[in-house]
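Lab notebook, design round three. We kept the backbone fixed and only want residue identities now. Task for the bench partner: fill in a sequence for the structure below.
Input structure tokens:
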């Protein structure tokens, strides 16, 4: 488990550097990401070369987490789990996940403005829970002398690795890292991170191995509720927030999957039975989306035929009348949902939520920097995980369902299948 005292310490950078380092050394590496996240897993997949799935006790449940970890442990030489926020933040936390399976924790500590105090932080992270702390990766280290001071203060906690301050870091924007496909020299950056990472091989070899049995691999059979159904998924730079597990869930339920690009003005496939519009960055591609007449006409025809369309967050944003970006410029969208989306610089909503339907609880999260002003009356609302208070609005218009909520399909296969079978979730 790669964790820290807080966000911003360099967890993703260090996890990516470790993944690329061990991959280049000929090891098979599997990486997971704790919590609800789309962007970090894309960067980590670029670093290790294999899909990065979510691993979260609330989103998935303990049996599913155990099965995913067991499968990865049987397939790979090294399994890394990037935590979320700080080690003990959230309920359940990254520490809870690590302790549930006896996974040792590696603490990433930004040492740029400290030296010996790294020791106090490491001891606190280890003992507060406690957790099985395997060691520390000191990030943003200034010199060999700086690293020596850190090592002397850590007592019985090993420095498993260190990473110097980087001239070229992983680029970021308002929702997190820039998507790897948009960074021309991303592999150069990852290779440089791996080359700059100093590893204590003996300390790594001493880390306690976590063993799983064959029984741990067992998961319930997925119901084939979408057998024979063709689900078309929007996928491009504007519609990029797509859990790999969601796509796999659709296929496991029997669906045929295809992709199309609204940004490229591609139409929905003629033989599609349902459409999935995931989240992403429509605000960065508003001009192209507004001019995508072929895509918009195919969507209107699809809805006129009363075929199900499920749109979440960025997918919903692309369907409104107008989108006002952070510069204040206004762009015409598809005009399906009457109203205006306004981007803002401050966070509008963040956190885990549930959609309660007749098929049970469908879990997921919300994370957006925009507001939706409209006259539509929500058909339902999600519930916030922590308080059970009212969460995101769910809008229904004909065969369309739209919401800011990002669903995690494996949390409830029946409820997820219903999104693509019917226009109604009770």
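Proposed sequence:
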């Amino acid at each position: 488990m790669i964790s820290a005292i807080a966000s911003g310490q360099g967890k993703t950078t260090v996890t990516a550097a470790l993944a690329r380092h061990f991959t280049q050394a000929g090891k098979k590496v599997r990486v997971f990401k704790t919590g609800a996240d789309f962007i970090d897993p894309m960067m980590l997949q670029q670093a290790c070369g294999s899909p990065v799935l979510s691993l979260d006790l609330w989103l998935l449940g303990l049996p599913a987490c155990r099965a995913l970890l067991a499968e990865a442990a049987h397939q790979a030489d090294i399994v890394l789990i990037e935590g979320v926020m700080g080690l003990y933040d959230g309920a359940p936390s990254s520490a809870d996940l690590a302790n549930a399976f006896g996974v040792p924790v590696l603490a990433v500590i930004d040492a740029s403005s400290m030296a010996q105090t790294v020791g106090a932080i490491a001891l606190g992270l280890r003992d507060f829970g406690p957790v099985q702390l395997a060691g520390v990766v000191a990030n943003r280290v200034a010199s060999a002398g700086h690293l020596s001071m850190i090592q002397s203060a850590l007592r019985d906690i090993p420095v498993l690795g260190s990473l110097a301050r980087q001239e070229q870091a992983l680029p970021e924007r308002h929702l997190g890292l820039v998507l790897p496909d948009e960074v021309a020299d991303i592999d150069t950056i990852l290779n440089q991170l791996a080359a700059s990472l100093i590893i204590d091989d003996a300390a790594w070899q001493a880390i306690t191995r976590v063993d799983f049995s064959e029984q741990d691999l067992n998961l319930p059979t997925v119901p084939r509720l979408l057998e024979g159904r063709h689900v078309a998924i929007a996928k491009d730079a504007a519609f990029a927030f797509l859990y790999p597990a969601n796509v796999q869930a659709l296929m496991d339920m029997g669906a045929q999957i295809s992709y199309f690009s609204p940004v490229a003005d591609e139409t929905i496939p003629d033989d599609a039975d349902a459409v999935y519009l995931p989240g992403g960055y429509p605000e960065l591609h508003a001009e192209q989306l507004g001019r995508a007449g072929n895509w918009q006409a195919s969507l209107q025809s699809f809805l006129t035929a009363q075929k199900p369309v499920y749109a979440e967050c960025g997918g919903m944003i692309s369907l409104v009348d107008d989108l006002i970006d952070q510069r204040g410029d206004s762009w015409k969208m598809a005009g399906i949902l009457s109203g205006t989306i306004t981007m803002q610089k401050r966070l509008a909503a963040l956190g885990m939520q549930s959609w309660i339907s007749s098929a049970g609880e469908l879990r997921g999260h919300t994370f957006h920097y925009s507001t939706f002003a409209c006259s539509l009356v929500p058909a339902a609302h999600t519930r916030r995980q922590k308080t059970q208070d009212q969460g995101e609005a769910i809008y229904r218009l004909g065969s369309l369902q739209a919401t800011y909520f990002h669903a995690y399909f494996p949390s409830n296969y029946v409820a997820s299948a219903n999104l693509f079978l019917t226009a109604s979730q009770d």
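Keep this in mind before ordering anything: Residues 189 and 218 are 39 Å apart (CA to CA).
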